[in-house]
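INPUT
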Amino acid sequence: MSKQMTMKDAIARFVRDGDLVVMEGFTHLIPFAAGHEIIRQKRRDLTLARLTPDLIYDQLIAAGCVRKMIFSWAGNPGVGPLHAFRRAVEQGKPRPLEIEEYTHFGMVLRFMAGASNLPFLPTRNYPGTDLTKVNPHFKTIRSPYGDEELWCVPALHPDVTIVHAQRADADGNTQVWGLYGVQKEAAFASRRVIVSVEEIVDSSVIRSDPNRTLIPGAIVSAVVHEPFGAHPSFVQGGYDRDNDFYLKWDAVSREEAGFQKYLDEWVHGLPDRAAYIKKMGARFDELKADRQMCEPVNYGF
Amino acid sequence: MSKQMTMKDAIARFVRDGDLVVMEGFTHLIPFAAGHEIIRQKRRDLTLARLTPDLIYDQLIAAGCVRKMIFSWAGNPGVGPLHAFRRAVEQGKPRPLEIEEYTHFGMVLRFMAGASNLPFLPTRNYPGTDLTKVNPHFKTIRSPYGDEELWCVPALHPDVTIVHAQRADADGNTQVWGLYGVQKEAAFASRRVIVSVEEIVDSSVIRSDPNRTLIPGAIVSAVVHEPFGAHPSFVQGGYDRDNDFYLKWDAVSREEAGFQKYLDEWVHGLPDRAAYIKKMGARFDELKADRQMCEPVNYGF
Amino acid sequence: MAEYTTSELMVSRAAKELKNGDVVFVGIGVPSLAVNLAYRMHAPGICMIYESGAVGCVPKRLPISIGDPCLVTGSLAVVPMLDVFNLYLQRGLIDVGFLGGAQVDRFGNINSTVIGDYAKPKVRLPGSGGACEIAALAKKVVITIGNSKRTLPERVDFVTSPGYLRGGRERESLGLKGGPELVITDMGVYRFDPETREMVLVSMHPGVTVQKIKENIGWDVKVARELTETPPPTPEEIRIIRDELDPQGIFLKSKAG
Amino acid sequence: MAEYTTSELMVSRAAKELKNGDVVFVGIGVPSLAVNLAYRMHAPGICMIYESGAVGCVPKRLPISIGDPCLVTGSLAVVPMLDVFNLYLQRGLIDVGFLGGAQVDRFGNINSTVIGDYAKPKVRLPGSGGACEIAALAKKVVITIGNSKRTLPERVDFVTSPGYLRGGRERESLGLKGGPELVITDMGVYRFDPETREMVLVSMHPGVTVQKIKENIGWDVKVARELTETPPPTPEEIRIIRDELDPQGIFLKSKAG
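OUTPUT
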């Protein structure tokens, strides 16, 4: 049955104060529309997990939604630091931020362990790094084959995972192409899953190419039709990454006041993504992707 | 650079007596042409690993190529037993066959552990089964988080893995759609990889849909252009599974003599797959797949 | 009332175990027919998963193997087997798994590995395939098997797929959830006692007697206080099975009448 | 001889470390420029992998993030990050990994986590990202960093990515292979002593003196017996860098002359 609803309803129903929330998408398909709605609905005491907090989590920190962050790389890619994150960690402003730090590999394994209902997964990574000294969640085990010692990371079980994708049907069968990141693992690890998409399609479109389905409807709680829902991140085949936005963000967010001004104007000041698109105006035409279609394949027998 | 060569050359160069050989493909894309060439080149003392030995390994056993088999389900799907396998295990005819037995999940994890260069992988499977009593390679480990006990299987590292696919470029960048089985994990776990394909395509075709690439050229030793190389198995979008062949195989292979007669006529009696196709004649027209193309997607930005 | 075969009755009974929306791990033969019957009758929202990696299948013909191309064409998703076992089965997404075997014992343990000694087998069977993990990790398991002293011994020669092991709390004590819920044979239907975890006869197919059951099972089987008769397949069910699901009678060879 | 910037020299020098056919884990900035320069000069068979999952990339523009869409379009493969780390990096497929950081010490350990105490940082840096696993699991690592007492201290404040730790055999004793091979700064090039695993100055850029190096490094650095001058970029290399790789000068802002 259809799980389609508005972003407002999806966040209201499935994201709660104090939740462990994951909004994934590695550079690609970052669910900014969902993040803004969480800010508008004033969720509090969230623990956020993500490989790269990126601007989306920096905005949630500045908006006062976040108690703790679990991450592996906290920067503005190719540009500089995340200023709200640094203010919170270095000066405890506006409030202290608890952090739990891994590496990309470690975060991916935490999601995969959670998705597989395993307590942990092992890796050959981590000998010699100081990370294992400051994060007690890293533990070692001895292999029962030979006796090598391996480092382990524990499973991560989000209360809710939110991902953005190119298309899904109303039941939540979701297809992605381009960078996969860890969306699949994060979704399967999670108790609830919200998917926002550029396009809601008939199931026949999904069924025409079943190998492209990344997340099955069976684990999806809500499907939201949210065009341009990833901006300033990008959607392969949809719109380009807004690199100017990321470059200019450094100045916008450097001072607490400027950061709040942005949130007032672009988040609190707008009712939803539709209004955001309207306000962005012609910018989205410039970002629109060129056409470079793949060779179709035959699924017949 | 191009790695394209004939099946004869690929087997001669990369499959050696005593090797641990994997020919994967779960029902789909079973590399029968490669199996027949290994029989023709009279490889001996092979250890064969595969989830479902299927007819391909039963033929290698009857041909005297095999010393040991590592597997999880040894039958003719939907039809009955593998007769050469049963003769070897029950009566030691033509020679005894050493076996090492897992379950599908266990075999998949063995390949994934090998592909990930880990000594083992854990699972919640196996409490209570007698398999762990007859196979000493199953070992337990205590989770460093809480203290649940989990069963583990050891990494599998084939000397050579052989897979069949729809298409690859001459460098070995290989694309598959339809059932994936464990080809990717088996290939990455292996020291050498032979890929046979229905079609050699220009790299531009591969590059038009990079998410479809299952095996990268970086790990491929040889690429063989082998149309109908999977028959009597099937190729999604190419040709149907030859279910009649599988049904009739039961009678063909029930007696040692009949089995040898088949090998003489269809393997030893033929120089290569081209001759096999010629001999099959009109049958391949009947098996040819209908056209059911997927919706193409846009990779532009 | 329409004539029907015992197999058709078993298919019809197994189909009744499936609820709309269930995620079902499907095997070949009776399980496949039962799931497809439920899909056409009362459970259009059922999600069929095959261990080959096909999810949400809508097979246009009866698959004779669990990896048939007809399971892929038009399916909702095709995933690597690593995902089938890690992300679907071990993750706990599978509501119902169907299993068969050469032997099922008093506590629902299944043998599909060997008859006789493992090292010197009388009969070497195919082995587990995905059966062991389905028995261990699915939320509930439905078993179909013939009813005879050979197929239903007190103790299986080899535990390929764990049921309740030696009964009582042993399965739970090893950290396993779920377990077999129902055994459907060609003579009757069995459930498991919530305390002893022993198979209990709960219904008999039309024309079968308790005596006949007792003569065809390897231990002194307990009989439920309210023993019912297994409802026969409806004419509509028979029509779907014969005309739509198995028109060539590949799995249900002996037609009635 | 053509004018060039120090950054252009670093890019040119780093490119020379890449052989045709190498599988290279690429980062943003100098590494990305170096790999793309090698690809256009002497290593057309190079395979670029980005931790975002793009393999065999042919970027039509300079990516400003490691997840830029131009890395996907026309690439040979796009894979889940789980595969990038398990099947490519941990599996041992990566020949060369490029790393930078805020600090690199005497034994090639890299800090990109914090300046000062971890619990009360003076400066909080982005953290490891994929750097720790690249340093631990790639066959060889090439480091680029500025040459100053601040960036090259005797001991990093925090070991984000392991080099040779405290030198000698410590890295091997922990089961790690590979390790840093080369450090390229804005003043010179360093290698690691095979015994002590300590950074040794092996070449200086044109115009740089040993004294200047010693004034801009956090310990009494050893100098190789045959100290050479770093070869400057050729006019062709400079042309490619300026006209093809970074036309807007995003990473190499200060043009020479």
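end of record. The mean pLDDT of chain D is 94.
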